[in-house]
Design a protein that fits this description.
8 helices, 29 strands, ten-stranded mixed sheet, mainly beta, about 525 residues
Length: about 525
């Protein structure tokens, strides 16, 4: 087959196939894409499928959204000079702070409220020692303006969160930019972020840093940040907004930086009665009290802006559909997923799952988030990460990903269909009550095949179903003519919904021989 013919055929393949191939290095860097939620039912406004050939698609924008947000946040980041002794030989420490709100006064001006590391403005060994007031610098270079700040009594000690509060008169030319808080409970290891506030400049680097994990105390640990003494208080920003403030390096591994989450900072500032205008996901600011872990640092998963609605056990039973152990879901490539407080369209928004392009690719391809409940046949999912539910996602906004059956052969249930597979071997469809099981095989039609994909087409392609279904990708080495065995369970709706197509693809590189996995039922 010529390259031109392959390109024409690939342009007619489902979007999901192109993205799955991308995640397995068969094409670009992504797992899937679909129309925006308000376009899903309107083919005329839905982007055409993209090519599955290598290099034909580039889903990452010229500049990631997180970097653009970091530049907006930079307008709120100020330089802080603290622990000044009042003598030339005691110039103090320099770092950063974040303007989190303002209080208007009667003269038309305002007082700015600034969050900054406590160790930057107080001596940890002598926190009550009187020092010269901190200085706050707005701007840089010839436009820099330095003013004296008031250090408030409210504080969190360095080993418990490292937070202090400054107040300063707002300069006439200073304006607050609108920024949002990231929902830190859904951030996965490997997620990209950007540091605002490096040595000497607030402009973020174009190269991202990466979230690693939380330590046992509750600090978020990132790698790749500048974390020397001059960058304490710098702000970490992700695709969904402000993630937190860098307080310094981890003691046992200096390549990692400790981040106090923005949810922790918001909770403390509001508890102290300080102004706060950084919006949470969904347009509200968290007002829930913090729950302390060891050493008094709040756990991140307790800080979702709005409480989820708990369904009654009887309602869960009546509305739930079965999913196998290990079933997960992922967002589409370019569309964030709104998380709601309950499984209703009019429910309050509690956050967003980042678009798939911003997630670690391995996690995204295999299923990034756990499914707690699948409700109303897949119209809704209760999503979980880190062992904590984070909200309800609409089935049209996600891809449901099931593992391949972990058995050497399928048994039990009622055989409802038999056929001969394209590999020339017997194939079976069984009804096991909670789902259907398929045992079949496909031929490798290339000199070597190394990828097996099973999926339903992406909406609004013919044969699509909501939620879009996918088997977790399987890799191996098969020679031309080999029969690639497939054993999997599929949701009942995939088999029972008229017109649904369950497709499979065995291939390598840019070639993947797509064909129906389940033949149409005989009338």
């Amino acid at each position: 087959m010529s390259a031109a013919t392959r390109e024409i055929l690939s342009l007619n393949r489902p979007v999901l196939l192109a993205i799955l191939l991308a995640g397995l290095n068969l094409a670009g860097p992504a797992l899937g894409q679909t129309a925006a939620p308000d376009q899903a039912s309107n083919p005329a406004t839905t982007p055409a499928p993209v090519s599955a050939r290598p290099g034909a698609i580039t889903l990452m924008p010229a500049e990631p959204k997180g970097l653009l947000l970091a530049r907006e946040v930079a307008a709120r980041v100020v330089r802080v000079t603290g622990r000044r002794g009042g003598l030339p030989q005691q110039p103090g420490l320099t770092g950063y702070g974040l303007v989190v709100g303002e209080v208007p006064d009667d003269t038309g001006g305002a007082t700015l409220v600034i969050a900054t590391p406590d160790h930057l403005v107080r001596d940890p060994a002598q926190p009550d020692r009187r020092l010269s007031p901190p200085l706050v610098t707005f701007g840089s270079g010839t436009t820099a303006r330095q003013v004296t700040a008031e250090l408030l009594e409210e504080r969190v000690a360095p080993n418990q969160g490292d937070l202090a509060v400054l107040r300063v008169a707002r300069p006439p030319d200073f304006r607050l930019s609108r920024v949002t808080m990231a929902l830190t409970s859904i951030i996965l290891p490997g997620t990209a972020a950007w540091q605002v506030g490096r040595r000497g400049v607030t402009e973020p680097l174009t190269d991202p840093v990466r979230y690693r994990h939380d330590d046992v105390v509750g600090w978020m640990l990132f790698e790749g940040l500048e974390n020397d003494g001059a960058t304490a208080g710098s702000v970490v920003v992700g695709e969904q907004g402000v993630i937190g403030m860098m307080m310094g390096p981890q003691e046992s591994d200096k390549t990692l930086s400790r981040i106090a989450s923005i949810n922790f900072i918001a909770t403390r500032m509001r508890a102290w009665g300080q102004a706060w205008d950084i919006e949470a996901q969904g347009g509200e600011v968290s007002q829930r009290p913090a729950v302390s872990g060891s050493a008094g640092v709040p756990t991140r998963l307790d800080l979702a802006p709005i409480r989820l609605v708990a369904l009654l056990p009887a309602e869960v039973t009546a509305r739930s559909s079965w999913v196998p152990a290990g079933a997960r879901l992922s967002p589409w490539a370019e569309t964030p997923v709104r998380l709601l407080a309950s499984p209703r369209r009019e429910a309050a928004v509690v956050g967003n799952l980042p678009a798939g392009m911003y997630l670690p690719q391995d996690a995204w391809r295999m299923g990034a988030y756990d499914i707690v409940h699948k409700l109303d046949g897949g119209a809704w999912f209760l999503v979980q990460t880190g062992g904590e539910p984070v909200g309800y996602a609409a089935g049209k906004d996600v891809v449901e990903i099931w593992p391949q059956a972990e058995v050497t052969g399928l048994a039990g249930g009622k055989v409802v269909r038999e056929w001969t597979s394209s590999a020339g071997r017997p194939a079976l469809l069984r009804d096991i009550g909670t789902a259907y099981e398929i045992e079949t095989s496909l031929p490798c039609r290339l000199p070597f095949c190394r990828t097996l994909l099973v999926y339903t087409p992406a909406p609004p392609m013919p044969g699509a179903i909501i939620p879009t279904f996918q088997m977790r990708p399987v890799t191996g080495i098969w020679r031309e003519g080999d029969a690639v065995a497939i054993r999997l369970q599929v949701p009942r709706r995939v088999v029972e919904t008229r017109g649904t197509r369950l497709m499979a693809c065995v291939g390598s590189d840019a070639d993947c021989a797509e064909e129906p996995l389940l033949p149409a039922a005989t009338p």
